[in-house]
Amino acid sequence: MSKLRKGARCQICKTKGETKKAVVYLPHHRLSLCKEHYIQWFEKRVEKTIKEFKMFSKKDKVLVAVSGGKDSLALWNALVKLGYDADGFYIDLGIDDYSQQSKELAQQFAQRVGRPLHIVSLKEELAPIPEVDRITNKPACSSCGAIKRYYMNREAKKLGYSIIATGHNLDDEVAVLFGNTLHWNIHYLKKQYPVLMEEKGFIRKVKPLCKITEKEAALYTVFNEIEYIEYECPFSEGASSIEYKELLSKLEEQHPGTKLQFYTGFLKKMYPLLQEKTEESQPTVCKLCGEPSFTDICSVCKLKEKLSKSGNVSVNH
Ligand code: SF4
Ligand code: ZN
User: Fold this and answer.
1) Quick check: CB of 121 below 6 Å from ligand 1?
2) CA distances from residue 132 to 7, 140, 176 in whole angstroms, order as listed
3) Domain hosting residue 205, numbered range
4) Which residue has the higher pLDDT, 1 or 182?
5) Is the dihedral of CA 147, 189, 158, 109 positive or negative?
6) Model confidence over 110-137: pLDDT tens digits?
7) Does residue 212 have its Cβ closer than 6 Å to ligand 1?
8) What is the average pLDDT across 230-238?
9) Are residues 28 and 135 in the same domain?
10) What is the Cα–Cα distance from 241 to 226, expressed in whole angstroms?
C-alpha cells in the first residue's frame, strides 16, 4: 500500500481532467488515489460488500459493535455517511486503562456522528474480564468472545435492532480462516461467512469490512481525523491470530492480493461445499436466562454460577 510512485497522480481525478497528487497506492487494486477519492473508494467498497452479501438495507436498524478501535469506528463512520440507520453499542469489559480509554473514544465519536451509543458494563452485568480470567481455565479471549456475543445479541433484541454489524476486517477474517484450515475446524469453517442470518433467538450478524484490509481501515480513520485507541488489549498478547496475521502480511507483501484471493476463494469455492446438510445440533434456549444456546445452560450462565461459587458475583438470572 505504501509503495507510491514518485509524482503519481490520482487516477480518478485524471478521468475528470484534473491532476491531483496521489497520496495512497493500493497495489492489489492497482489504484493511486488522492485523499478525497480514497475516502470515496473506501465507502463505495463498504456499500458494495453490503449489497453483494445482502447484509441489510437502508430500512433496517443496525447496531454497530464499537470497541474504540479503528475498524469499528471506521465502519460506523462509513455507515452513517452512506445513509444507513446505524447506532453504536459498546461493552465495557472492565480491562483497566484500556477499557477506560476506549470507552471515552467511543463516546466522543458518538457525539461527533450525532448517534446514540448504548453501553453495557460487565462489572454490573457479570464481572470484569480480568476477574473472569482469574476464575476460568480458558484463555481470556475465548470467554470474552462468548460474553461479547451474548450481550450484543441480548441488547440488540432488547433495543429493537435487527442487525449487528462488527468491524472485522479482511486481515481478521483471513487469520481466522487460516487458523481454522490449519486445524481443520470444519464446524467453524462452516460458519465463516460475512453474514450469519437470524435464527431462533440469534440476531443477524454482518461484517461489512470483510474485504477491507487493516491498513485500509487505518488510513480511512486517519484521513477522516477519527481518534481511536492505538494500542491492543493487554490480553491479546501471544494470541496465535497475531502470528497468523504477521505471516500472511509477509505473503501479501511479496504477492499483493493474496489475502483477498484466499478469502474470496474460500467464500466462492469452499463455503458452498460445506453447507451440505449434516446432523449438526440446533440452537435451543438456555434454561436459566432464556437466551439462545446450543447447550441446556448457556456459557454466560455457566460462568455466572462459577463466579458465584468463587464469591465474585451474585447469581442474577
Ligand atoms: Fe476480549 Fe481478548 Fe479482544 Fe481483549 S483481546 S477484548 S480479552 S477478545
Ligand atoms: Zn443463560
Assistant:
1) no
2) 54, 7, 24
3) 42-276
4) 182
5) positive
6) 999 999 999 999 999 999 999 999 999 8
7) no
8) 87
9) no
10) 26
